[in-house]
């Protein structure tokens, strides 16, 4: 019984420590979109800028997985590899 409780506590602690690390990726992806669209004025860039705004709002609401997906999709349409 003690072993199960220890595993549960360690698991929860791991999740709590990992969440802030994952959450910090959203702003980095949004920054990538902003950098890639800074001097572009085409419809694709405009759509990516809207997606960046959506990703920022989702990040602020704590919906990090959705924020990351929106940002990565926008980077994909721009032809930019996330993290590069």
Question: What features would you describe in this structure?
Answer:
There is one protein chain. This protein has one domain. It is 81% helix and 0% strand. Helix 2 packs antiparallel against helix 3 and helix 3 packs antiparallel against helix 4. The termini are far apart. The model has no long low-confidence stretch (mean pLDDT 83).
Residues in helix, %:
over 70%
**Uncertain runs:** none
Instruction: Report the biggest beta sheet as strand number plus sense, adding barrel if it closes.
Output: none
Query: Which band does the percent of strand residues land in?
Result: under 5%
Order of helices and strands: HHHH
Give the N-to-C terminal Cα separation.
47 Å
Short description:
This protein has one domain. It contains four helices and no strands.
Search tags:
4 helices, about 80 residues, single chain, mainly alpha, about 80% helix, elongated
List the helices and strands and how they pair.
Layout: H1 2-23, H2 25-37, H3 43-60, H4 64-78
Helix pairs in contact: 2-3, 2-4, 3-4
């Amino acid at each position: 019984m003690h072993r199960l409780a220890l595993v549960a506590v360690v698991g929860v602690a791991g999740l709590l420590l990992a969440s802030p690390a994952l959450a910090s990726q959203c702003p980095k992806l949004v920054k990538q979109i902003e950098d890639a669209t800074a001097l572009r004025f085409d419809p694709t860039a405009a759509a990516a800028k809207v997606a960046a705004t959506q990703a920022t709002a989702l990040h602020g609401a704590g919906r990090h997985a959705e924020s990351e997906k929106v940002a990565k999709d926008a980077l994909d349409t721009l032809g930019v590899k996330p993290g590069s």
